[in-house]
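Complex record, two chains
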Amino acid sequence: MKKIAIGMISLSLLGMMFTTSCGKSSGKKQIGILQVATHDALDLCRKGFVSALKDGGFVDGENITITTQNPEGDSTKQVSAAKSLVLNSDLVFGISTGSAQALKSAAVDFEKDIPILFSASTDPVGSNITTSSEYENITGTSDAGDTKKNVSLFTYFSNVDKVACLYNSAEQNSQIQKEECKSACADFNLSFEDAGITSANQINSAFQGLVSKGVDGVFIPTDNMVAENISLLKDIAVENKVILVCADTSLVANGGSLGFGVDYKGLGEQTGMMAIDILNGTKKAKDIAWEKTTSFSIAINDEFFTKIGITVPDEIKKMMLVG
Amino acid sequence: MNWNAIGYFLLSDVPVQGLIWAIFALGVFVTYRILDVADLSVEGVFPLAAILSIGAINLGVDPLLSLLISVVAGMAVGFLNGVLHIYLKIPSLLSGIIIMISLYTVNVVLSSGNISINSGKQTIFTIFNQLINNRILSQIIILFLFVAVIFVVVYWFFGTEYGLSLRASGKNKTMSKANGINTHNRYIVGMIIATAFIALAGGLWGQTSKATATDSGKGTIVIGLAIVFLGEVIFGRKLNFKKSLISIVLGSFIYWLIMDIIYSIPGFNTNYTFLIQAVFITIVVAAPRIKKLFAHMQRHKNSEEESEVTKI
């Protein structure tokens, strides 16, 4: 057994030697990216960030070195990965709330004052990323959707006067969007119906219930439970000519009617712009205010509108062209 | 990447993670080795404890007291887990799963996805940091004190008559019953103890990382079991109780040393860590068997050679 112990220790030493021989300590700026998991939106966000840096004159392998760590959703490993990145980088970028928190916590613990950027965090204030006196060298972008912009889509359809919000009442994120939808409906003179559910098997009956109440437009927030089951609603929506506005463009492809979603590549680019300013030394992270996303893309399910026999108003089609 | 940063990373992260997960692995050890059940409830208890500790701190509770809240909640869950198995006759593996999935909902409701320590709030580590003014060192010292006290108490407890009867009822239920030990009672008490350790590890983890996601328990049972096995492989399976406790701590350190080295390799695609972890655990668990196999082959070969010699 001693042999195994010795073997392991020498293996780890070998690993350390390998790591040092690979890493050349050159003048290149080290950029560390912590991405919580592999996911379409998060991948796009990272790619947008890297491509914005490239456009700004910072190319991976030429004048900067980018190290990406992806703990695949494992929170405990994420803490270690964050520490490793903070110690080895000149600027770190956390994609998701948890990643940003882990990077910030590591920077505080090591008392290392490096610029931290975050993205794809819906509520950076509520999750204590930006509101802290102990660490100010942090900024980034939030992926909170624009509910009002989505609800405004209903106004282009003359047949819609009663709107409901279908969401999982256990998700805080959805609760917030429901409230936003409610107030937006009041602004647009639409009557509002609350349809909170607590389990995926309620979706069907909840939706049928809404139809019987005369609801002709349903807003679907970025809610995981409803998102996973959107295809269940597809046929009933067509049958009853109910327009489903989704706050996520991928839902439109799976059965929704149309909707503005966050463009994660644009979000990454928006964060990349901040990184360029920091790397150029023109601004410090603490002087840049965190921003809400400005890049939305609209998706329209043409098949749906052909089936229910309503033509999509030109105003909406124009929005698609603008991007 | 440079030597200093990697060295500093390993020196700072391995002790912190190693000590926290030693407590966690002790909980797994109590269920898996002493009670002889694979308890999956840990995946729900770990984040629950972290959420409760962070939530209590945010409400203004003393950080040390918040750990106590986590531990008491863990004990309650352990009690429930034991009762499900003993009185409702639910298989122990299933009762663990029931607890794990029910806690998922509890965690979502308590934290709505993510919870973090509000700025300006203290943890036990930041309070101690005011004395020595070194954040990493204060984490290591506090965690070391926790581990030292817990392992000494555990060593003492499992040496008492009650503790021995608990160990006996896990090893051989029928024999223990025949000797007048109430094995039902011992099972529930064992579960309470084990889950208390898991909860303490979760609470400490929450205070070191200052934030937790609802699903931070994902994969924790694998880490816990890997540490227990790793300790046994390196220091031998048939250890006395004191040595098996020590092997847990050392196993935890070695586990995180290896994990952290993986994270230190520049340009390494960390998507592969799960596969590496799986291969690593397979090797660790199968090592004694492989060793035996080699010894057997060697003997076989030797005897063949011998027989050839005799032929000549």
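Note: The beta strands of chain B are 114-116, 211-213.
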